[in-house]
Design a protein that fits this description.
By secondary structure, chain A is of the alpha/beta class. Helix content of chain A is about 40%, strand content about 25%.
């Protein structure tokens, strides 16, 4: 199968024009088919504040009431997404910005209220990768905003890591997919105080060992669990790395 | 050639949820291939006001400074566009929201400063209709926001009537295009005080006659001039009608 690299970048890097420019240049250097998934949380929080809407976070997730849904739809689907698409077009990458509603490529359902009412947040139920795969094979580079829809007329807020994982799994039927998560370090560190102590590869056995030893903890645990899940679902490999290394072979490789 | 209907609707109708719902239902009844072009000026003005940005209009056009460009990118490309796309998907229309940057389908240049500095407003220079035509032939319904890009990384604000006209002309190479402009009346009126006095057809000769007689005046003159220009450029017909009549044969037909 033909290779496809799906890169997920967080909000910060795409929200400042200089770092965005560098990111897009690095992204454009990735050979072969590619997809970019972006966040935009900082911009959403800033815009909400300007509009007098308080951003409420629970477990790192945004509580999305009706007014906040409008803000994220504007900011993720409009402002951030189009800045990226225009930036990629400027360097010859034929980008196409998408939310889950566009082409109905990702359908979700509003998260049921349990302990927390997250509001208009969507849990992914269906990914229609065929039409995406078709566009990708024509040289189009999808730029995916962290928004889905319920196919009943409502947009829903969906975490960018989730969008990346779900898109990667669905596209694995069509391509040999590398899923790349960017964060602020060069990779998963053996020693959190040593930025150069990047673990080159993590297998399920090593993961259990590192968790038991406390080497891996906190938010990295669900990130790695999601990575193993993606690999089980057909994704070829997952790489956790820093945004400026996406076009290199660096970072931590997660393997099945 | 296969028929394609391109409908342009103004801001008001797509900005209120009830009228939007009705519009999308009517739009979905149009047989054959279709494209929807939308405005969103009222929402942009309202959002700008909430953000403390004053909307300045000259000759009916928005002066688009850097902050206003962000607002229209968010509102047109995000909020309004995605509400329409999600609404169409809910009734089984496979919509795809696009700005000119997406797929580089419409490139513009920042309007040169003459008497008025319109700011970040784009004059259309190039329409790449092939990829749009390809998607349309697969059953995709493009939903075009009034935004273009300069292929140098910048989004630009572009009037929705212009987007509709330019897209219609470029798509006329691939389809037999009907371009439909919606406004608040059933069509062009012979007597402005009689809403039922719709002129069924306007030829260039009749246009000259009606202008000379004062039957047609004001903003309708450039609208009709643009319509004749579209027909000269290969558009099959232009219809001026009310939004609730788009799926009927009603309105004023402009013919070459």
């Amino acid at each position: 199968m033909v290779k496809l690299t799906l890169v997920k970048v967080g909000g910060k890097i795409v929200e400042e024009s200089e770092s965005l420019k560098q990111l897009l240049a690095d992204f454009s250097k990735i050979e072969g088919y590619k997809v970019l998934v972006h966040g935009g949380g900082r911009s959403a929080t800033a815009m909400a504040a300007k509009l007098g809407i308080e951003s409420q976070m629970v477990n790192g997730r945004r509580i999305t009431d009706a007014e906040t849904l409008k803000v994220v739809t504007m900011v993720y689907g409009g402002l951030v997404n189009k800045q990226i698409v225009a930036g990629l077009q400027a360097i010859g990458v034929n980008a196409l910005g998408l939310t889950g509603a566009d082409l109905n490529y990702m359908r979700s359902e509003k998260r049921p209220v349990k302990d927390v009412d997250y509001g208009f947040v969507g849990d992914v139920k269906e990914v229609n990768a065929d039409i995406l795969a078709d566009l990708i094979a024509k040289g189009v580079v999808p730029v995916l905003a962290p928004l889905t829809h319920d196919k009943a007329g409502n947009m829903l807020n969906t975490n960018a890591d989730t969008i990346a994982g779900e898109a990667a799994k669905a596209l694995a039927k069509h391509f040999e997919v590398t899923l790349m998560f960017c964060f602020e370090k060069k990779g998963v560190l053996m020693n959190e105080n040593d930025d150069e102590s990047v673990i080159s590869e993590i297998t399920p056995a090593l993961f259990e060992k590192y968790v038991a030893e406390g080497v891996i903890s906190g938010g990295m645990i669900p990130k790695l669990e999601n990575s193993f899940e993606a690999i089980s679902a057909g994704v070829n490999k997952v790489i956790i790395t820093r945004a400026d290394l996406i076009h290199t072979e660096g970072g931590t490789k997660i393997s099945g």
